[in-house]
Amino acid sequence: MTGAVVSRAAELDAADPLAGFRERFVPCGDVRAYLDGNSLGRPLRASRERLLRFVDQAWGERLIRGWDEQWMDEPLRAGDALGRVALGAANGQTVIGDSTSVLLYKLIRAAVDARPGRTELVCDRDNFPTDRFVLQGIAAELGLRVRWIDCAPDGGVTPDQVAHVLGENTALVLLSHVAYRSAWLAELPEITALAHQHGALVLWDLCHSVGVVPLELDDWGVDLAVGCTYKYLNGGPGAPAFAYVRADLHERLQQPIWGWMGAGAPFAMGETYQPASGIRRFLSGTPPILGMQPLLDMIDLVTEAGLPAIREKSVTLTEYAMALADQFGVTVASPRDGARRGGHITLAHPAAREATARLWEIGVIPDFRPPDGVRIGLSPLSTSFAEVADGLSALATVLSHAG
Fold first, then answer.
1. Is 54 within a domain?
2. Which entry of 113, 115, 128, 328 is annotated as an active-site residue?
3. Would residue 180 show up in a list of annotated catalytic residues for this protein?
């Protein structure tokens, strides 16, 4: 790493208004550069303390009484807080629970049933595997057709591409707001409006945008959205996902997994299922109360830092990473325009797989994405510019020795 690189990183860190937030996270041990915050965020010190308190008090002392005292409504309260801080969603439209895969199934199936007679679903071929697999499974189950959109490896879905496949048979459009590979930031409001012109519903996967890109789901007229909480929301491995369902759709959609927690009177133990009113009807089984706890701390931290400031640093971090990458002969397979880029970048190189494995051995942790991508995920509240400089310099060194 040259003196100029070190100096520039130091200047950027000194000018960073969010630099102090790095001390809120648990130390990384032997990791010198954590460049995978968009796969699994680092834990907060506050979460360690919250989990201990939860075990000793809320669980240990209150025991089963905790359900009556607070846990029954925890998925809704946490959903409201997340909606308010990170989604641009009014209360009563967001709920925490299940995995992203399960929530995708629920909302896709509910949307298809709400558009009887329509036979087509829209998705892009480079969407995250879970999205494509769940969609394909439902299409096979119901005899529907998937209209696929092909995207450039360093880009993503555009409004023109969506318009080309929409029609009177379109029931649902399923897209990711930020592409998991390239970080392409889709034109969400425009695409949503296009689908609505054809009477279709739209389901947005927010996994790679929530917590790092400001969202205004209510103002943008979004129908449905899902997202995980273990990336930029630092909820921890296996942390529960969230579902957003616009308020006017609650009574028009029937989710397919009729669990007791989504019933109107769960403790009545009735013979037949009657869905709860509002967003609660999208619950199924017992909510993962323990798994929600770290998310609550991150919601507080995002509130304190402010999403506009987080987004501003995210753009600067990725710009800095691209500038470093341009110096050592890799291809930046992500949008150069910050307005079209999420919180990570992908660097393409034939030796990407081997380089990523070698970097992990020396305490530099990026991500490998086939066929040839080193993905650099930069979580703004826990990542310094010096860390990015160190990690990218290590990548340059490893690639210089690649066969």
1. no
2. 128
3. no
> Known catalytic residue: 133?
no
In terms of Cβ atoms closer than 10 Å to its own Cβ (0-12, 13-18, 19+), residue 403 is: exposed
Domains in the chain: how many in total?
2
pLDDT tens for 203-226 read 999 999 999 999 999 999 999 999
Considering the domain architecture, whether residues 81 and 114 belong to the same structural domain is answered as yes
Helix (H, G, I), strand (E, B) or coil at 306: coil
Q: What is the DSSP string of 199-260?
A: T-EEEEE-TTTTTTS---TTTTT--EEEE-SSSTT---TT---EEEE-GGGGGG---S---G
Residue 249: give the domain boundaries. 70-302
Among candidate residues 231, 281, 313, 369, the one labeled active-site is: 231
pLDDT tens for 262-287 read 999 999 998 999 999 999 999 999 99
The reply to whether omega before 371 is within 30° of 0 (cis) is: yes
Which residue among 302, 325, 342 closes a domain? 302
Pure H helices in 34-142: 45-53, 65-69, 74-82, 100-113, 129-142
Active site residue 230: yes
Quote the pLDDT of residue 90. 98
Task: List CB contacts of 383: < 8 A, sequence separation 6 or more.
Answer: 22, 34, 35, 37, 317
From the candidates 34, 105, 230, 320, give the one annotated as an active-site residue.
230
pLDDT band at 61 (very low <50, low <70, confident <90, very high): very high
Pick from 322, 317, 255, 309: nearest CA to 282: 255
Residue 375 known to be catalytic: yes
Single residue among 281, 302, 323 that ends a domain in this structure = 302
Q: Mean of the pLDDT values across residues 162-176?
A: 98
- Write down the catalytic residue from 205, 367, 372, 390: 205
Residue 2's pLDDT is what? Answer: 74
User: In whole angstroms, what is the distance from residue 356 CA to residue 369 CA?
Assistant: 10
Q: CATH no. for residue 353?
A: 3.90.1150.10
| pLDDT for residue 1 is more than 70 | no
